[in-house]
Write a structure and sequence with these properties.
It is a single chain. This protein has eleven helices and eight strands. It has 315 residues and is an alpha/beta fold. The protein has a single domain, classed as Rossmann fold (3-Layer(aba) Sandwich). It starts with 10 loop residues before the first helix and ends in a 6-residue tail after the last helix.
C-alpha cells in the first residue's frame, strides 16, 4: 500500500526506502533554503545532483552547512539571459542526461526593478529565466524524465498579464508581480507537459508551502502579515496556521519528482504531497485557479515568452 504524505511530511520521510541511485538531477538555486535541502535529500538517497547558483561561493558555504552533499555546481544568474544561455551551453557540452529537473530558484515580492534584459524582476527571473534555461536543456532529458517547477499559492493573487508583463502600464505592487510570475510558472509546466509527454517526459508545478527562507528577504512585517492572512484563509481554524520548516517545504518537490505517479502529476499543480483540485473561489486559498491550468492560455504565454526572449522553442 502506497504511503500517504501531507503538509508535515519532510523530504527524507517522502524518500524513505526510495533509492535514487543512478538518477541524475538538476536543481536551480542551491545556495539557500529549499534548493539546498532538496539537493541534500536527493544526494542522501543516492542521486547525482547538479545545482545552479548565482553566487558559487555562497552555494558552497550553504552546502557545507548542510553536511557537504556532493553537488556539482554551475554558475547561473536567472536575471541575465546571457548567464542562463551560458549555463545551458555548459551542460549541453557535457552531454550527460538528466532524470529530473527541479526549477527551484526565484525571487519574491521584491521592490520594482528590471533584469539585465529589461524585464520586470519577478517575471523575468522566476519565469523567463527558467523558460529559456529548461527549454535549452530539454535535449538532455531522458525518456521518463520529469520537470518540477516551483510555483506558489501566490498564483491565486493574479493571472499573468500578457498585454503588460513588465508593468509598463500597470501600477506595480510586489505581491501582484509575484502572483503573476507564479501563475506563469504553472502555465509553463502545463505547456511544457503538453509538448513533451509524447516522448515520455512529464512536467508539473507545485507549491512548497509557506516557509520562512531567504526567498522572503524583501518582506516587511506588513507583508509577512499579509502572507499569514492569505495562507490561513479557508482553514477551519485560521489561528492554526504555521509556517513549514525547510525539510517540510522540500517534501512536495521530491514527491512530485520521484515518488508520485508521473501520469498523476503531469500537467498538474501539487501541494502538501498531493495533486490539487481546481478552486476558483476567490475567498479560498485551497487548490489551484483554473486560469493557471488552461492549456490554450499556457500556449499564449509560451508564444509571448518566445517573443520577449527573442528565441523560439518548437519542442
Amino acid at each position: 500500500m502506497a504511503k500517504t504524505f501531507g503538509a508535515e511530511s519532510t523530504a527524507d520521510e517522502v524518500l524513505e526506502g526510495v533509492s535514487l541511485s543512478g538518477k541524475r538531477v538538476l536543481i536551480t538555486g542551491v545556495s539557500a533554503g529549499l534548493g539546498v535541502e532538496t539537493a541534500r535529500s536527493a544526494v542522501a538517497h543516492g542521486a547525482t545532483v547538479v545545482g545552479t547558483a548565482r553566487d558559487l561561493a555562497k552555494a558552497r558555504h550553504a552546502l557545507a552547512e548542510a553536511g557537504n552533499p556532493q553537488v556539482d555546481l554551475v554558475e547561473m544568474d536567472l536575471a541575465s539571459l546571457a548567464s542562463v544561455r551560458k549555463a545551458a551551453s555548459e551542460l549541453l557540452a557535457l552531454a550527460k542526461p538528466f532524470d529530473v529537473i527541479i526549477a527551484n530558484a526565484g525571487v519574491m515580492a521584491c521592490p520594482f526593478g528590471k533584469t539585465r534584459d529589461g524585464f520586470e524582476t519577478q517575471f523575468g527571473t522566476n519565469h523567463l529565466g527558467h523558460f529559456v534555461f529548461v527549454n535549452r536543456v530539454v535535449p538532455l532529458l531522458k525518456s521518463g524524465a520529469r520537470v518540477a517547477t516551483l510555483s506558489s499559492a501566490g498564483h491565486q493573487i493574479s493571472d499573468v498579464n500578457l498585454e503588460d508583463p513588465n508593468f509598463e502600464h500597470t501600477d506595480y505592487q510586489p505581491f501582484l508581480g509575484y502572483g503573476r510570475s507564479k501563475t506563469a510558472n504553472i502555465l509553463y509546466a502545463v505547456a511544457l507537459d503538453s509538448r513533451l509527454k509524447g516522448r515520455g517526459v512529464r512536467a508539473t508545478s507545485l507549491h512548497p508551502g509557506g516557509i520562512q527562507t531567504e526567498l522572503g528577504r524583501h518582506l516587511t512585517p506588513d507583508l509577512l502579515d499579509q502572507i499569514r492572512v492569505r495562507m490561513s484563509t479557508g482553514l477551519k481554524d485560521p489561528s492554526s496556521f504555521r509556517f513549514k520548516s525547510v525539510p517540510q517545504g522540500s517534501a512536495t518537490s521530491v514527491w512530485a519528482s520521484f515518488v508520485a505517479p508521473a501520469d498523476a502529476v503531469g500537467g498538474q499543480y501539487c501541494e502538501d504531497c498531493h495533486v490539487c483540485a481546481i478552486n476558483d473561489d476567490v475567498t479560498s486559498r485551497v487548490g489551484v485557479r483554473s486560469y493557471a491550468l488552461n492549456l490554450a492560455h499556457a500556449n499564449d504565454l509560451w508564444r509571448k515568452s518566445e517573443e520577449m526572449v527573442g528565441e523560439r522553442f518548437p519542442l
